[in-house]
Amino acid sequence: FSVLYAALPDSSLYLVGVGPGDPDLMTFRAVEAIKKADLIFCTDGLEAKLADYLDGKQVIKGYWRLFEYYGQDISQLEGEERIRAEQLAKKRNEFIDMVRTNIANKKTVVILDSGDPLVYGPWAWCLEEFEDLKPVVVPGVSCFNAANAALRRGVTNASKTKSVILTANDWPGKTDTIERLSVHQATMVIFTMRAEFDYFIKQLRTHYPPETPVAVVKHAGYADREEVVQATLGDIRERIDPKALPFEYLIYVGDFLTYRHKSQQQSSAAAGASKD
Predict the structure, then answer these.
(1) Mind listing the pLDDT tens digit for each residue in 79-106?
(2) What is the pLDDT of residue 89?
(3) What pTM was computed for the model?
């Protein structure tokens, strides 16, 4: 294991992905970064999940989701949105000062994030903010990877497509809406993050036919809670109660869910025989 641990690059600031689900999906490099830390930022959930690894460490919570309005001119905002943006800016500045003060005092600071921190990760903004400190990112297993394993399907194997689109809810100002992406009818994976399930299905039905296979993966990476619900776009709503869905679920759409290599070979053989 010492050889594996030697791969951890030297830095005073680490952004560490600890994977989804159970702690055993965390990498050796993530464990080594935690060992090295003097100060760790994380959420309540991660503190509870990684309690054995964080024992004896200085842990600070309450600074999650500080990316909203980062880099924007909030003076143009009005009303409640202006108030919220100012509150976030104040909290964000507290966090920035805390990180820089500790690093100036020769401390090693580690920021923990679920999954992979650079796939819809709420901490990605801090890499820009602390660019002068040359932070090191420790990649983590994404919930996408864990959900692929739960499905037991090759997401790049389908009858007519080979691409996989990772997307999320239709954020204001973004042009790559789910409806527009659906035109390609490639495999699509939606990071839902509590967004409206019925909205996703409605948008997907715009260009995918109703017989298109669809799957919902809940709690990817949790050995005792992981669950897969598979149906079609036409009947998935009959199998899913949106109110019962957890925060941790992904939607998969595409023929890869039913694709079989042997079926393709048999079809090709049958076609060849008919020509003879």
Answers:
(1) 999 999 999 999 999 999 999 999 999 9
(2) 95
(3) 0.89
Round to whole Å and give the CA distance between 200 and 193. 12
Q: Are 93 and 69 in contact (CB under 8 A)?
A: no
What are the structure tokens assigned to 7, written together?
A: 């791969």
Separation CA 10–CA 6 (nearest Å)? 10
Name the one residue in this structure whose structure tokens are 């002068």. 132
